[in-house]
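User: tokens in, sequence out, please.
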């Protein structure tokens, strides 16, 4: 298969973690006979410094012409004084809207090898495997009207949570389809006891569920879900929720894995898929070679699965991550102080590539027999 992948390394630790994800994709291409072509473009603070825009036209055009987009991280404190629509993060919001991806998939997995890294007791977190499906183009983040009004002591601000039936239905179908290939359960999260938007959400999800008789649906208020994620995470399979709730809950789910650095994401449903680790740009450790690349590498696996249909290749990357963790490789954020090897970002990437090569050797030996 020939793929054209646009890499947006972005800001902070973004270039460091995307370099390892790109290296892993190159190893997969070599072991499976694929041709992956990588094109690098600017976004965020790096793009502002180069062109004055957080999303240059050249970047957007390249992304729209690609098979998939791999993103590192966006954001730099030195631009926090700019108006919101001129900050680095504005480039990411514009890109998401332009690509049209309305479903954001965020897995949260408790890896047995690093279960001690979680602040949760191992008997609570061990074995948890959750997929959070977050609606990405609606709700408070995009709803109109919004903004400031008044002056001085009379200043006020407004945001609007707005959803249509069509917006809810399309993301609900993504969640139910995912559940059919997992453990067959969807937990739809809302605040229907207070919000009309959540009442519409619950009604629509209930109706869509009738088309998936083999999937069990439960509804849960967002505050109850936040508690259950910390006290009983293994009860969840697929969590379906709106934009704001999904943003908060998926970050909270990092406690299951032990670090935001372990979390991957895929934004699908639009013209081109967007894949990025959940963590931010982490400017405090940028350039030191100690960032955790596992989230970026796992995002590369999701790219192969959802944009390319390369299920086996995606599985091999995920298996390689487990192998490397089991061998004791750790970055600082997941080092629980045990007898493990504190590795640098590039060493993690190299170890994952070596594991993929070993998996390929076993596969070739099996087929030879």
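Assistant: Sequence out:
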């Amino acid at each position: 298969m020939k793929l054209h992948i646009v890499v947006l390394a972005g800001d902070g630790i973004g270039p460091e973690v995307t370099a390892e994800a790109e290296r892993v994709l190159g190893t997969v291409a070599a072991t499976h006979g694929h041709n992956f072509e990588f094109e690098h473009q600017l976004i965020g603070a790096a793009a502002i410094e180069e062109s004055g825009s957080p999303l240059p036209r050249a970047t957007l055009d390249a992304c729209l012409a690609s098979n998939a987009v791999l993103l590192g991280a966006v954001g730099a404190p030195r631009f926090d004084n700019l108006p919101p629509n001129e900050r680095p993060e504005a480039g990411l919001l514009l890109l998401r809207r332009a690509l049209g991806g309305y479903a954001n998939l965020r897995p949260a997995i408790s890896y047995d090898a690093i279960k001690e890294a979680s602040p949760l007791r191992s008997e609570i977190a061990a074995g948890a495997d959750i997929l959070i499906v977050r609606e990405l183009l609606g709700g408070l983040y995009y709803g109109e009207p919004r903004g400031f009004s008044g002056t001085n002591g009379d200043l006020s601000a407004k945001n609007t949570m707005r959803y249509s039936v069509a917006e809810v239905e399309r993301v609900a179908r993504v969640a139910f389809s995912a559940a059919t290939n997992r453990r067959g359960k969807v937990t739809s999260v809302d605040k229907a006891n207070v919000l009309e938007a959540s009442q519409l959400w619950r009604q629509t999800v209930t109706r869509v569920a009738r088309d998936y008789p083999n999937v069990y649906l439960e509804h849960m208020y967002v505050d109850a879900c936040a508690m259950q994620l910390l006290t009983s995470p293994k009860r969840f399979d697929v969590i379906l929720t709106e934009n704001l709730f999904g943003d908060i809950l998926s970050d909270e789910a990092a406690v299951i894995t032990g670090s935001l650095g372990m979390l991957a994401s895929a934004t699908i449903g639009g013209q081109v898929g967007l894949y990025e680790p959940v963590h931010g740009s982490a400017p405090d450790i940028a350039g030191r070679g100690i960032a955790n690349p596992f989230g970026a590498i796992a995002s590369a696996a999701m790219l192969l699965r959802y944009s390319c249909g390369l299920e086996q290749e995606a599985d091999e990357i995920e298996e390689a991550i487990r192998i490397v963790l089991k061998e004791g490789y750790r970055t600082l954020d997941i080092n629980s102080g045990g007898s493990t090897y504190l590795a640098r970002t590039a060493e993690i990437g190299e170890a994952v590539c070596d594991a993929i090569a070993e998996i390929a050797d076993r596969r070739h030996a099996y087929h030879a027999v």
